[in-house]
Amino acid sequence: MDMPAPSPAILARKGAIVDRLRLVLPPGGVIDDPAETRAYECDALTAYRCPPLCVVLPTSTAEVSAVLRLCHEEGVPVVPRGAGTSLAGGSLPTEDAVVLGVARMTEVLETSFEDRFIRVQTGRTNLSVSMEVEADGFFYAPDPSSQLACAIAGNIAMNSGGAHCLKYGVTTNNLLGVTMVLMDGTVVELGGPEGEALGLDLLAVVCGSEGQLGVVTEATLRILPRPEGARPVMIAFDRNETAGECVSAVIRAGLVPVAIEFMDRPCIVACEAFAKAGYPDCEALLIVEVEGSEAEIADQLQRITAIARTFQPLEIREARDSAEAARIWLGRKSAFGAMGQMADYICLDGTIPVSALAPVLTRIEELADGYGLKVANVFHAGDGNMHPLILFDANSADGLHKAESLGADILRLCVEMGGCLTGEHGVGVEKRDLMTDQYRPEDLEAQMRVKDAFDPEWLLNPAKVFPLQVSESRRRAA
Amino acid sequence: MNGVLTPRDEGELAALVREARGPLALGGGFTRGLTPEGTPVSTAGLSGIVLHEPGALTLVARAGTPVAEVERVLAGAGQRLAFEPMDLRPLLGTEGEPTLGGVIATNGSGPRRVQAGAARDVVLGLRFVDGTGTVVSNGGRVMKNVTGLDLARLLAGSHGTLGVITEVALKVLPAPEATLTLAFGGHDPAKAVACLSAALGSPFEVAGAAHDAEAGVTRLRLEGFAQAVAVRAERLAKLLKAWGAAEVLEGPGPWAAIRDVTDFAGRAGDVWRLSVRPSAMGQALALAGGAQRIDWGGGRAWVLVPEGTDLRGRLGAFGARAVLVRAAPETRAALGTFPPETPAVAMLSHRLRQRFDPRGLFNPGLMEARAA
């Protein structure tokens, strides 16, 4: 992975910069001991590492503003960091950058059930937001699978999704407002509990901007009344195509299940060996979950199984109680763990139109054969967000390289079929150099103009999202 | 509108922008009564549905496609635009054909916004021509896409000031099997909003929550499979019994009229819309006076006041949440359509407009005051 060479001038001034940062933060708010900064040298994309200049852990918007104003004066790049769970290297440091972590900002600032929002500091974890309102019958809808660990800051940066997006949308659909600090230290309020932008919808472009535009310190999130219940049905097929057709047929019939998950044979076999969920021997498995009252659940499941039957499934297994529901989900939820036991893996998250499902799966298998690698597929079929897992051996000399090359080929395939490079993980450094496969130069130019407006010196989260050669003239001019 | 230029395709539109020597007043059907200065340019010539994939809940259409055509095609597959685009012609006394591009460019969303989100929420991607005449594509046609910056949603609601939308891809939703309305009578705005909030805080998937402050009628809409709707209505009525007995109305009910605020059509006076948090709406409306209609569970209100009223002045801090919808040109010129923004937001918005429309061609003066 190409990263720009660090600025020797900044490296030479490290001591002075750290001293200045200590003056604006409480004791313990600046970490510069190389043994300790190592904890911040990567995120969940562990293949790439680089220790930062230092790490700052502010506790308030005012402290974030002071840090950014100072870094702006010094011309020091800043890498914002939530909980460090990015799979795309969204918070990979550079040697001359200050990592700004929001992990100490976890307060709940305001909750209103009447207006259905919660306002939190963004270091708070995704799951703890839902837990905060659970007793009152509410929840926060986006539920990325890392929800136990991931921070709201990162969710906003990557516009995170989860398994329930078909019904509830992704972060951008559930984010009402933010307090954000610009690189020069200016604090700006975008949106709010009212939830409607009356001028330009700046909140819309901030969500998913991967720390390129500002550091989001506080967020107003929509909370929703929790459904009375939810229950899955598992449907097994002997062909991927048939499973794909069944998904389309369910949606065409006017049903919007809260989740439709798809697993292919390699994934089913691995999950079964690992979790022993009792999955049938089949080529493709769907798990369709519906919500509502007991009567509504029964009605929707009846409609779904009636449609599924017209596709001659190998098996339909309805959960009759919560234990059976948990068993159906068990295999799916342990998919990543199961893969981890078998081999090292890369998890992709390209998205395709649902109609392209079967041809894409066939082509992925062909591509994998060409590299002599295995791919297991598990994904959110309702919204076309695939998660091909490329299995490889990290101990072999070119294992990672081959897996990455196959990954790039698969993502290009997704784009070719009318989809995109990333559905919920973000571009980061991982998919940065593939951006030119999805966007023409003028499309990227338009996106970079937004960066110019918010961060004219290009100091925030350097070397992410935009391919280095595409952003080179801007970075040099700044 | 006279002398409207209607390019036939994206390429022609891009050339027109490149060659423009002065401001352009951009529109679709020009049904919103906004008349920025400049040569009128309509996207009506860029018409037609490019793709509709019912099994993927996806529609792609050119910006000038009439909303009515989109709705007809979707209805043929049992689907619809869930954000419920408004038709403001009766209220504003305008003519013309509302277009999909116009709806997206103004983020025009109806009562179902409380459940299904706004127009901007269902935008999957779009194409636009920027102020240099360059065609830009952003997003795509798939449901989940975080590849690069989300310009598509930024363009939604930008009223043409960042670019002329030429094509949009949207998430569509199934049309319901049954619709039912619960109505409660005799409550003031604050009490009515409390009722709407209680309903929207329930798990019964309320898809419309409005209050007519003149008639004193509070309405809730339920949609879905017939059996589910009937059960939810019964349980919702029970939950809300503190607000009295609910009258139940089957069928579409008065929601199209609520969406289009037709009650204020033909009545003299200026029309404003307010967007405040529901728990503060009662207070805001007490300051506003005039005739009032509440929508979005108390998050939005339409207010009819005598011509020339400076409603923002009356509203104090809530004035920053008031948009002028219908007024004489002199009032619009004096008070401005949109409320003033905070300095930081105004600065960022201005920088964006400078970069997307460096010559200041697109609907100048509509969203931000022009530099003196």
Question: What is the gist of this entry?
Answer:
The complex is a heterodimer of chains A (478) and B (372). Chain A is α+β, with helices and mostly antiparallel strands and 478 residues long.
Description of the molecule:
The complex is a heterodimer of chains A (478) and B (372). Chain A has helices at residues 8-12, 14-24, 34-37, 61-74, 126-134, 152-158, 165-168, 171-174, 202-206, 240-252, 265-275, 294-309, 322-333, 335-342, 357-371, 399-416, 435-438, 441-454, 468-477, and strands spanning 30-31, 54-56, 78-81, 98-101, 108-112, 117-121, 138-139, 175-181, 187-191, 215-222, 224-225, 230-237, 259-264, 284-291, 315-318, 344-347, 374-380, 388-392. Chain A is an alpha+beta fold. In chain A, the strands form four sheets. In chain A, strands 15-12-14-13-17-18-16 form a seven-stranded antiparallel β-sheet, sandwiched between helices. In chain A, strand 5 and strand 6 form a beta hairpin. Chain A is globular, with a radius of gyration of 23 Å. Chain A starts with 7 loop residues before the first helix and ends with a helix. With 372 residues, chain B is of the alpha+beta class. Chain B folds into three domains: 10-174, 2-Layer Sandwich (Uridine Diphospho-n-acetylenolpyruvylglucosamine Reductase, domain 3), CATH 3.30.465; 178-260, BMC (bacterial microcompartment) domain (Alpha-Beta Plaits); 264-335. Helices cover 29% and strands 24% of the residues of chain B. Chain B has helices at 10-19, 67-76, 89-92, 100-105, 113-116, 151-155, 189-200, 226-239, 255-260, 278-288, 311-315, 329-335, 343-356, and strands at residues 24-27, 39-42, 49-53, 58-62, 79-80, 123-129, 135-139, 164-171, 173-174, 178-185, 206-212, 217-224, 247-250, 270-275, 291-295, 300-305, 322-326. An eight-stranded antiparallel β-sheet of chain B has the order 13-10-12-11-15-16-14-17. In chain B, a hairpin with a 4-residue loop joins strand 3 (49-53) and strand 4. The longest helix of chain B is centred in the middle third of the chain and has 14 residues, at 226-239. Chains A and B meet through strand 9, helix 9, helix 10, helix 12 and helix 18 of A and strand 7, helix 6, strand 9, helix 7 and helix 8 of B.
